């Protein structure tokens, strides 16, 4: 079966506090999240012989805990949760990991990179914004007014979105096999959206639980942040696309946002063309030195809100750093402390 376009075979979604069976023993759960533009996250429950495995936990809020309790009492057939697998460390996926594992006395299962990063950020909470964070946003070209807002908000937003991250975990890695009920799931690690994102693939059933690595309707967020200011996550993401293209075209994708869909290869092709188009825009714009702030109108055709600007800056940097590492752009920090990017050919022409 060849899927030329994105198709949504279920035609419906579960209501809050309810479930929808995707395949035998696989339940789709939708939970609200306070993230503009997303609104909901998809979580999954997979029936095992003696209980259930939860895939991702949801955001830390009393409302979501109440919805989970409703599902626990109504849809688990009297069986307990026996395992929590988190695809990656972001709060909408890992936010309730501490609560779930304590509530059921079960282990947390993740890749090493995701658990480490999540626990680090949880423990690094501070009332005052660290200097390296301020320096990062000064270097991208934020105004003094915007920098003042960065300083005033502190550095505990991640901490607030999480329950305590468990001190221990069971490690999975690329190629790991996890048996849940009648299915074997292979862990396929992708990078770029997060350090070591785990997807679960059942070859027998043609199912991919993709987390945020593969999404319909939207592209996964690929950004650079203060913890790794010179990172090149876009290169990692583009390399990961080829990994998922090795899966059959008729794989049914169970994503973390929007709807269950067919059209894996179509969506991966779109990601590649989308990012190549943005990279070409940047190359055309960087005939003279440009800061990340300067380049926002090049990448985004709409007016950005304050909350959108931070994400947009991080995405812009990801594309700039890709071009720097490919030798297409030069990155220099000026006497004003701001990083600026310029095409190598433009620099060479000016020197000549």
Radius of gyration: 21 Å
**How far from one another are the termini?**
57 Å
Measured by DSSP, the beta-strand proportion falls in 15-25%
- Say what the CATH topology of the largest domain is: Metallo-beta-lactamase, Chain A
Residue share in helix: 25-40%
What would you call the structural class? alpha/beta
What series of H and E elements makes up the topology?
Answer: EEEEHEHHEHHHHEEEEEHEEHHHEEH
Q: Specify the CATH homologous superfamily of the largest domain.
A: Ribonuclease Z/Hydroxyacylglutathione hydrolase-like
Can you lay out the helices and strands and say which pair or pack?
Elements: E1 20-23, E2 26-32, E3 40-47, E4 52-55, H1 62-75, E5 81-85, H2 91-94, H3 97-104, E6 108-111, H4 112-123, H5 131-140, H6 144-152, H7 157-160, E7 170-172, E8 177-180, E9 183-190, E10 197-202, E11 207-211, H8 233-245, E12 252-255, E13 261-262, H9 264-285, H10 296-299, H11 306-325, E14 329-333, E15 339-343, H12 344-351
Parallel strand pairs: 4-5, 5-6, 6-7, 11-12
Antiparallel strand pairs: 1-2, 2-3, 3-4, 8-9, 9-10, 10-11, 12-13, 14-15
Helix pairs in contact: 5-6, 8-9, 9-11
């Amino acid at each position: 079966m060849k899927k030329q376009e994105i198709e949504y075979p279920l035609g419906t979604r579960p209501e809050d506090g309810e479930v929808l069976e995707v395949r035998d023993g696989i339940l789709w759960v939708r939970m609200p999240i306070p993230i503009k533009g997303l609104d909901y996250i998809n979580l999954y429950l997979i029936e095992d012989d003696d209980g259930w495995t939860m895939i991702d936990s949801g955001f830390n809020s009393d409302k979501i805990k109440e919805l989970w309790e409703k599902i626990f009492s109504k849809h688990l057939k009297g069986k307990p949760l026996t395992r929590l697998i988190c695809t990656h460390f972001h709060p909408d996926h890992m936010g309730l990991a501490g609560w779930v594992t304590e509530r059921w006395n079960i282990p947390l299962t993740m890749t090493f990179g995701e658990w480490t990063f999540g626990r680090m950020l949880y423990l690094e909470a501070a009332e005052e914004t660290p200097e390296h964070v301020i320096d990062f946003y000064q270097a991208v070209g934020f105004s003094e007014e915007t920098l003042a807002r960065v300083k005033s908000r502190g550095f505990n937003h991640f901490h607030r979105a999480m329950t305590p991250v468990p001190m221990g975990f069971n490690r999975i890695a690329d190629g790991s096999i996890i048996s849940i009920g009648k299915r074997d799931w292979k862990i396929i690690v992708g990078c770029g959206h997060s350090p070591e994102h785990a997807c679960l693939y059942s070859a027998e059933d043609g199912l991919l639980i993709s987390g945020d690595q593969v999404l319909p309707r939207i592209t996964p967020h690929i950004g650079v942040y203060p913890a790794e200011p010179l990172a090149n996550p876009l290169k990692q993401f583009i390399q990961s696309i080829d990994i998922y293209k090795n899966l059959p075209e008729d794989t049914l994708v169970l994503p973390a946002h929007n709807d269950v869909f067919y059209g894996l290869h179509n969506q991966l092709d779109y990601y590649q063309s989308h990012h190549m188009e943005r990279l070409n825009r940047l190359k055309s714009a960087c005939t003279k030195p440009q800061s990340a702030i300067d380049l926002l109108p090049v990448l985004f055709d709409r007016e950005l809100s304050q909350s959108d600007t931070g994400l947009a800056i991080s995405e812009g940097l990801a594309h700039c750093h890709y071009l720097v590492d490919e030798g297409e752009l030069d990155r220099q920090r000026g006497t004003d402390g701001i990083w600026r990017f310029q095409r190598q050919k433009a620099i060479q022409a000016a020197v000549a």
